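User: For a benchmark we're assembling, each entry needs the component sequences followed by a predicted structure for the full assembly. Here are entry 17's components. Please fill in the structure.
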Amino acid sequence: MRYELVAGLETHIELSTESKIFCGCTTRFAGEPNTHCCPVCTGQPGALPVLNRRVVEYGVMAGLAVNCSINELSFMDRKNYSYPDLPKAYQISQFDIPLCQDGYLELSDGKRIGIERIHIEEDAGKLIHRQEDILIDYNRAGVPLIEIVSHPHLNSTEQVREYVDKLRQLMRFIGISDCRMQEGSMRCDVNISVRPVGETALGTRTEIKNMNSISGIVRAMDYEFERQCRILERGGKILQETLRFDEATGQTTPMRSKEADKDYRFFRDPDLLPVYISKEEIERIRAELPQLPFVRAQRYVREYGLSPEEAAQLTGYRRVSDFFENVSGSVRTPAIAAKFIIGQIFGRFRTEKEKEAFEIKVSEEEFTSLMKLLEEGTINHNLAKITLEKMMDTGASVSQFLDKDALKCISEEELDSMCRRALETNPKAVIDYKKGKEKALMALLGYVMRESNGKAEASHVREKLRVMLSE
Amino acid sequence: MFSAEKEGVAVGRIYEIHNLITKKEISCRELTQKYLEAVIRDNHMLGTYVNITAEQALMMADEVDKRIHSGEDIHPLCGVPMTLKDNICTKGIETTCCSQMLKGHKPVYDATVWQRLKALGAVLVGKTNMDEFAMGNTCETSCFGAAKNPHDTSRVAGGSSGGGACAVSANLAVYALGSDTGGSVRQPASFCGLVGLKPTYGAVSRLGLIAYASSLDQIGTLTTSVEDCALLFDSIAFHDPLDSTSSVSFKADTCSSLNNSIKGRKLCIPQEYLEGLSADVKTCFEKAVRTYEDMGAEIEYMSIPQLRLALPAYYILACAEASSNLGRYDGVRYGHKTDLYESVQEMVSKSRSEGFGDEVKRRILMGTYVLSEGYVNAYYKKAQAMRHELAKAFDRVFEEYDAILTPTVPHTAPFLGQALTNPVESYQSDICTVPVNIASLPAVSLPCGADSHGLPVGLQIIGNRFCEATLLNLAYKFQQSGDYASSTDWGVTL
Amino acid sequence: MISKQELENIALLSKLYVPQENLETVCRDMQRMVDFASRLCEAPLSTETETDSRGLTPLREDIVNPSCPREDILLNAPCQESGCFLLRKKV
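Assistant: Structure for entry 17:
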């Protein structure tokens, strides 16, 4: 019997707002325990929540980015349960009428993973488990989250990997979260079930909670898929349970499930009123959204003739992508500009942080000027490369390196005289070449390139020298 | 200079005090000391205060005296000895909700309303007794023992703001702030012969009011006169951006219209409110109705059938919200924590079971029940629908009428211990007050006579949302039409 | 009728401990409250409409306000250590 994997993901993403969702405490990461807190986010008696506008805006942005419809009116509900990291013994979330619903994320093969809903909610505090006790830090309590719930449309770990990657890239791109899984600003709960190939009904699913790395998700899913298949093959039944993935053993283990606790007794939070966002507001947000990375990438391939890999590289990070966007509008051949960006500029960055920050000393205008000079033929490829390096090092403008004279092309006569000078001042090289040492030519070429400040066309010079040397 | 004699309005106790201290006939310190001495003398017999803040009171009084001596024009509320119900957060001052759960708890912030009154120069004599977490209507569920009725100490002061009503009625404070979720300010006012106002939901900030039922709670006022009530209300009703349910546009101004003519005002009396009244209450109420007629108001008897289901709806909604609001008391961040336990779960359950009294526990269980998966539609959602129906019904009433007249409570103050024998039966006495909270309306209770034992009877006037000016105008005119003010021999005599 | 089992489940959800000997009394008390509330059940009410007459939720600007000093946050804590709330797993 062959089984098919069916998975849906619930992804929690911490929004990068300045302040928490219901109070003005900072959302800054780390910090001494309980120093980013107030009566509201620690659930003190008598404290009341007030909703952060930017949380709603970011929620709408996330929804629009995955093609959701936005509910003008949505409601905040209380999800009641008791746990030490939950200050009020309820989480303020959205239950039956969330901010966004019915969207999709398209994978590279065209498959659309349905997104059931996106809602806004608050995060809980952090528990530090020790042998005998638990330490509790509420700095994270009240940090705004969006929860993106997909339909169970994922059928392989590869698809899940791509889904998570794309979602992360997208949310970073539109600027609502840094989506750093290792730091916990993006976490996934995986709902997984199996069914015989060809079957349409869904099997009983289990939920693997709090996955914070893609590799972990893949390992956990592989294990769980195997486990469920084995049970079904034996004729057993899958228990609907909540599981934890043990990194060390590579196995999923049940979390202690307290049956009665699963009743969250959702009801409208009476301390808050309905959340309203007007059609105009939604359209304004939509207009201000950048063109999304995948769409941009497709356009680059289609219109500029970039390779899919190049396009992906350029749309991976918001700032790089914006840089290229702005430059490509002003140059004739964006493909050339793309190669420079990828090859030279990008090559300088090692870490993800650096790539995201994209801190370079070259402005879009300066880079565009350089590209224009290249396109006009005023400078050659080599010179452009060298100049760009100098610009990135110093931040100085193009004109600093290429003065009026230098921008003129070298005439053939000038080139000839440079070549003859090369032969005259490097007699040893001439002799070596005539003896058969090809390498000697490089010394002569080097001389001419230096003389011409790199402006000479290397292959052209080489030809000239060969001709002269054969005389 | 604030003039008390504006448009012929009487000088209430607040202005009396204001005049005494600004004319320097008595210093604020001396005045405060009088109150403190009286409190210390009478409190153990009345069960009024659960926390007497003598040191702070004298400090605040000294501040006021300084301001007076510097020639500063002070607000009428400045230097007036007052109290707060012990569910209103006072920074650094123990706030317990009269529950073992919060014994020793010191809030780290002030309730918005208290912040405002402090800034105006109020002198806090102490925190007053209440039913535990405001759940009750006799003040007997307090972990500190009940507050007694100053008119007859074998009877209750009422609840849940029993201590506040007792304090004002026993001359142990000039005014008190309480909270009203189903009648908890109006009913004690009725039992003790005071003016008790429950403002429109959203008129007064709830920030710092320790929640019982968030969509029903409002901070209310307890005073000896309508003019005091108006002054106090105008001072504490303002928009608070830190309370999402606080009204943004409402501007309180009830003082300037107190003495307006009420001729031609249309008042109605729903017959559902006339059932089950004791003979004395019936007599006093009918007399009050005739008084309004004599003053030129038009009275009509009518019916609001939805009122019959208001009480069950109220208990479902209140218990549901309470069960959620009180979930946070788990011994982790504050509050009572049990000594011995085998697991975190056990610690939480034991702490809560030890910290909460029986009525609180019953209401939490009830609230959990009506919100639970199997029952939420039958109970909670139905109660919400009922709420909506009732609000619509009242909207229609106010299209035709200016206000509704009802008795506040169907009876006068019961004896101590009566309610505890059958809690559910005692819910019945909330029948006149509860619909007001459900529909988010304002209502005021004022004394309209006494029964054969001399116990005060209360008249309730219900107004449309944010129409406190009309409400207090009608109340003031009634107050001035006769001699209904009741006094007791306790406390301070000035 | 509320069964003892049902009451135990409700107590578990409420995080309240009802000792065995009190179970029957509490059951009876609960039943009285539920009966009282059940008067509402017969009413032909439509649970369709969703309106909050109090208006729409106000939105605040995303500005950081200074947090409370840690001593205040921990002021009423039954147990604390190294700036955190401390919860012993058993005592």
